[in-house]
Amino acid sequence: MKALLALSISMSYLTALSGQPDFGTLREQMVKEQLRARDITSARVLEAMKTVPRHLFVRDQDQEAAYGDHPLPIGWGQTISQPYMVAAMTQALDLRKGDKVLEVGTGSGYQAAVLAQMGMEVYTIEIVAPLGTQTKELLRKLGYDQVQTRIGDGYHGWPEAAPFDAIMVTAGGPTIPKDLLAQLREGGRMVIPLGKTQGVQELTRVTRREGKIHTEVLMAVRFVPFTRNPN
Ligand code: SAH
Fold this sequence. Notes:
It contains seven helices and nine strands. By secondary structure, it is α/β, with parallel strands linked by helices. 39% of the residues are buried. The model is unreliable at 9-14 (pLDDT under 50).
């Protein structure tokens, strides 16, 4: 006990000296208080989110806030999802190591990094070109080499890499894009925020079983709108 106390004092002393918060501790707290305390039980999701340095996926001035229980703006009117939302969507995909996963809406790249950390083969598409370019560079710099990035309208998916074991859509829209459904393999799972009113959606899990599509509403959510390229 004494040793533990001494260790934690010296850690906060080090933090004070360097002027940097102890991000590892913030991450552990996030996992314990925001994920475990709710309904996140997947050991692989918890482990990945304990590892991926979320503060490097936000703007410099927001690094400490990155571990808070909320989404954050990342520029271009877009947001990095709340940690719990990333965990819940990932858990809902029921992934096995090595699964091929398509993400529509790369944003900050944090969700893609969590998937890569779990050992997935990740394909991710972003429609806002400067954001997509910046995130591509960040993912490369951080060594997430299993993530393939593309700039474009994710509405049509990524046909050359299909079929996918799982598809995650991180922007809200009224309907399930047909091309995405077509790129989901037999037994595949998709999570997508669905809603006709902007900013109000139901997070829905879509499963393809014996050629049939099953849908299940998981929870009420608020995502930035799914946008479409005019051309
Ligand atoms: N997964 C992200 C969350 C990003 S928010 C993260 O972890 O940070 C949703 C993102 O979807 C935004 O960056 C938005 O620009 C993008 N987006 C919206 N419509 C899209 C479309 N049709 N194709 C690809 N990306 C889209």
